[in-house]
Amino acid sequence: MAIRIKTPEQIEGIRQSSILAARTLKFLEPHVQPGVRTADLDALCEQFIRDHGAIPATKGYHGFPASCCISPNEVICHGIPGAYVLKEGDIVNIDVTTILNGYYGDTCRMFSVGKVSDYAERLMKTTRECLRIGMQQCFPDNFLGNIGYHINLHAVAHGYSVVFEFCGHGVGLSFHEEPEVSHIAPKNSGPKLKPGMIFTIEPMINAGKARAKVDKKDGWTARTIDGKLSAQYEHTILITEEGCEALTDVFGDF
């Protein structure tokens, strides 16, 4: 399938959905506390999204049972909210995708549960930097692969590894569209970026080895193979005539 260039009307619809996704994460922030079950956060997420006239895109997507992905500590991505109770020192990723008036907005970020270790803070800081470095490569006629090339350079320089089994993706009119946005890629590889492209950049950075293992029990939860921490941040990115706009960067929190 070809990469879809969005029309101005479509871009505005995707922008509004992206704003709602960002607002959902902001709404959840004060609730991410020790003693809170991830299932309770998911219920709050769903209620907020539906109260604003939208639908949580993950619920029922290929059988996924929840309204967001919640991935603590060594969980890389696609964590299913449930009985897990957050504890002091945890780091947790919450990934939200909204469908508003048929348009999709996708974002995720890390949350600290109480006071976390310097080790965890450094990982999250570097992962935020990786997202920003990827965004710096988003301008017309640059190669898509340069996003992943520069993300990987930065992560490795700080002693971390980049998950290669999951990637960013086109988004907006569907949940997952072309192109795939690898977070490790050869320099000057892939298609050239054009105004009107919309896709996610969502680097998953591991403190240890890059590989992931998916829980056989639920078929979704992806964990680090060595039990070490993982972090992820994500924005929905629009390529503009001048560069790019992060449609989900509403609050400047990351």
In short:
The chain is of the alpha+beta class and 254 residues long. The chain contains 4 helices and 15 strands.
Give the overall shape. Answer: globular
Distance between the terminal alpha carbons, to the nearest Å? 32 Å
Stated plainly, the CATH topology is called Creatine Amidinohydrolase
Count of folded domains: 1
CATH architecture: Alpha-Beta Complex
Please name the fourth-level CATH homologous superfamily.
Creatinase/methionine aminopeptidase superfamily
Rg, rounded, reads 17 Å
Task: Explain the overall architecture.
The chain is an alpha+beta fold and 254 residues long. The protein has a single domain (8-246), classed as Creatine Amidinohydrolase (Alpha-Beta Complex). The protein has 4 helices and 15 strands. It has helices spanning 8-28, 38-51, 118-136, 145-157, and strands spanning 55-56, 69-72, 75-77, 91-100, 103-112, 161-162, 168-170, 177-181, 198-201, 204-206, 212-214, 222-224, 230-232, 235-239, 244-246. Strands 1, 2, 4 and 5 form a 4-stranded antiparallel β-sheet that branches. A 3-stranded antiparallel β-sheet has the order 3-12-11, with no helix packed on it. α1 crosses α2 (38-51). It is globular, with a radius of gyration of 17 Å. The mean pLDDT is 98.
